[in-house]
Amino acid sequence: MTERITIYENELYLVMEISSDKDIRLLHFGTQPFIEEKEWNDNKRSKFRLIELHLSGENQNDHHGSKHTGTNPGNRLTFSNWSDGRNDQGRKIEIYLIDELTNLDVTYHIQFFDKVPMIRSWSVVTNSGSKPLGLEYISSFALTGIDKEGLSTRDDKVRLHIPHNTWFGEAQWKEYTLPELGFHSVNEFSMKRIAYSSTGTWSTSEYAPMAVFENKEVGTSLVWQIEHHGSWHWEISDRKELLYLQLSGPTEAENQWWKSLHPEESFETVPVAIGVVEGGLEESVNAINQYRRRIRRANKDNETLPVIFNDYMNCLFGDPTTEKILPLIDAAARAGCEIYCIDSGWYSDGEWWDGVGEWLPSKVRFPNGIHEVMDYIRHKGMIPGLWLEIEVMGINSNIASKVPDDWFFLRHGKRVIDHSRYQLDFRNPDVIDFANKVIDRLVSDYGVGYIKMDYNINAGVGTERNSDSFGDGLLEHNRAYLKWLDELFMKYPDLIIENCGSGGMRMDYALLSRHSIQSTSDQTEYVKNGVIAAASSSLVTPEQCAVWSYPLQDGDEEEVIFNMINAILLRIHQSGHLAEISEDRFKLVSEAISYYKTIREHIPKSKSLWPLGMPSFYSGWNSVGLVFENKYYLAVWRMNSDSHVISIPLKDLMGEDVKVDLAYPRNGNSAWRWNKANGELSVSMKNRFTARLFEIEKLSN
Fold this sequence. Notes:
It is built from 13 helices and 41 strands. The protein is α+β, with helices and mostly antiparallel strands.
């Protein structure tokens, strides 16, 4: 006799089955009720694992290749009980499982969020036996049958949307059919898998830890993200003619993670978020952005969205001095900026890359002390900020040779060195004490209210010190760093700390649930930066999404406009030699910032749209918009298109009377026309590599 658990919450259906021998299966997770498949015998249903969990010395009882299927004791876990309650976020389900052979207890957590079509999922395993158990793999979420809806073949109906990432080229989505990824239906199951992983301390150097699985036939999409700033893994493959999805943090096979779980010890997996929406990529992004807004730390920065000036990009490039900074402070204040951040180099007399780590201001760069420029920033009505890279020490730092090896990541008895830096280990209390003293000095002595927290290395698989494996050391360091951040924000709740990892190399929601703002790219070419900017709010909520705008010294007015539109619907990260550009071009910067201040209160409540599809470096035109109530804010870029006209579909406005205004620049020489019948805005731009921002107001309710 089987038992069925059916949950309906936030327009999501979740169905679990408990067999007569207490095997629990996750049969369904979707926007529509579960349709029972008559041909599903118990052998097939038994593959709908709720959790995959593998221990050392156990039989991986499956013809699996590299796939994480057939795990044990994952296949032996039996249902014990479950609870159904509520907390501040919404409904909370807990499933209790046991393995009688090893005395392993598992609690599987499902957290709903009121009015958001997403869940957060994770597991806690406890060794209730008398012998250590070696953990090799455990899923944070597993779902079989992700392609079961519809009548078409999965080759025809399935599209997988993958966010590719790289330095200078973040947030580049690509849509694939399964055959395009080399995955074909050849049997009821295969050795092939579609797998994406990241190993090390840069979580997004190749891919963002998210994706969208779209079913074109039935019009629904499954969207997920792994909330971790270290190693992670997810995979899709088939079993019993159905596709499964498994999400996890680090694994032994992919990431050199292994954990010895001692008696009475518990281990908690990395949390993941999963949702199902009606629609495709755009609808998926808006759903997960809703969720991201719910899970992050509440802070004023994400409500007020102050304009930041940072003197690095296409400006001082890490070579600040009092003489260079003072006129930039004047110009930034005159343009309307509200924060001034001095970027890298402030702590070194000359070349600084391999000497970072002490974080004391250079007396050569600031002859009268750094207080002179910090005070002047405040005098001009702006919040002072400094660049910092607290997690590393350069190999030629003044103090790196004076502290013991246990301050750092170690492998094979040696300090790990990457790009001339050592990686600090935040499990060490002395490292925490050092980091706290640095922050206290910046805030209490220098008066810093903004920190650009950068991170420019990948320290690899992890550390051997006080760990069961390299990956175990990395994971525990990751968690210690998050704990440090949480305590830091408790001490300084109004301190704004920007998350940066050579731009977007660590753009994940373990960090972004704490940090209020994310640097999206280090791209120095404004045209390419516009492509990245237009797509970045798919990975980060718009109000956390800092985009450089850096008018060039030798550019023209269209270049300034393009630069400003790159940032104007997100977070303005202003730079460039504002003190040295012409007055006409400076006025365009000021105009953009003034306009931004009239709309920024809407950004944290808006949803995003990409009416021309996700932007790419090969698109002739790009467009991104924000929708708030009856207002559409639409940025349009003509790239290298041969055509000077584009028709932009706005499907929700088809048949509607609207008012269209050119919002920025007010005196732009573009033409536009609203086509009510088909809901399209036609825009004409005469020159390549130009941009315009439109306001579209729906006139009827």
